[in-house]
Structures are given as C-alpha cells and as structure tokens.
Amino acid sequence: MKLALGCDHGGYALMQEIKAYLDTKENIEYKDFGTYSEASCDYPVFAEAAANAVVSGECDLGILICGTGIGISISANKVKGIRAALCSDCFSAEMTRRHNDANMLCMGARVLGPGLALKIVDTFLAAGFDGGRHANRIALISEIESKQV
Ligand code: RB5
After folding, report:
1. What are the pLDDT digits (tens) for 1-29?
2. What pLDDT is attached to residue 30?
3. Residue 149: pLDDT above 90?
4. CB atoms within 10 A of CB 145
5. Is 99 a catalytic residue?
6. What is the Cα gyration radius of the chain?
7. Going by DSSP bridges, is the β-strand pair 104-108/84-86 parallel, antiparallel, or unpaired?
8. Which of 33, 41, 46, 122 has the fewest Cβ atoms surrounding its Cβ within 10 A?
9. pTM confidence score
10. Ligand 1 neighbour 62 (Cβ under 6 A)
11. Are the C-beta atoms of residues 77 and 83 closer than 8 Å to each other?
C-alpha cells in the first residue's frame, strides 16, 4: 500500500512521528508531499498535492495533518473524488473506512497526542470498505460532485 502524506507547519512534528512509524511497516510505502519544515506555510497547498496523488491512483490512501485537522480536511475535500475524514478517535477511523470509503485520514496535531494518532493511523489502514448499501451512498456523494460546475 502506498500513502500520500501532507501537512502544514502545525502538523509537521506529528508527521515526522508517523513517518518513523510507517518506516517500521514492511508493506507500507509513502510519498511525502510536504511541508518539509516547521516554517509557517499554507495547508491547502499540501492538501491538494497529496489529494491529487490519491485521485490519480499514484497513491492508495492519504494522511493529512494540520493544527486542528480542519483546514487540511476542508481543502482535500475540494478535490473531486476525495473523501477526507477528520478523525480524533479509533472508532471514527474504522467506520469512515467501512461506511464512507474514506480515502484520506486527517488529524489535528494540536488535538491529539502522538500515541493516539498512531493508533488512529493503524485503525484506518486496517479497515476496509463494507460496500453494499454504503456503496450507493458513495455514489450519491459522487453525484453531488458531478453537479458542481
Ligand atoms: C495554522 O496555524 C493552523 O491554522 C492550521 O494548522 C490548521 O489548524 C487550520 O485548520
């Protein structure tokens, strides 16, 4: 599995911890779309770059982090085909894969400690889409997108 990673300065430190954790996993690779330091920057830039890698198929799923997780999730969800879920607990991380077929996990580095954040990552990556009635709902989300000009 290949992941697209993106963060702003608020998420930079936590992203380094997530990358170190992912480095211990044999079956996971990632592409880091930045930011690459704690210098102040604009989260939409990194959200868009990582989101484009997911919708193009270059990456299977993505992880995005900013201070709250809110700005970077709003930004990613502007990219057609992205279902970015802001999660602060493991239950939501599991259910958003199972029911929403979320393709990007968003977290707030100023909200979560690193221990919980890594558990959320594990949970998100381990879960899969349930399909069935949920597939129809995902199709309806795509219909909303297709109505936008
Ligand atoms: C940056 O200060 C902060 O606004 C950003 O990381 C994020 O929390 C925005 O939603």
Report:
1. 999 999 999 999 999 999 999 999 999 99
2. 98
3. no
4. 12
5. yes
6. 14
7. parallel
8. 122
9. 0.98
10. no
11. yes
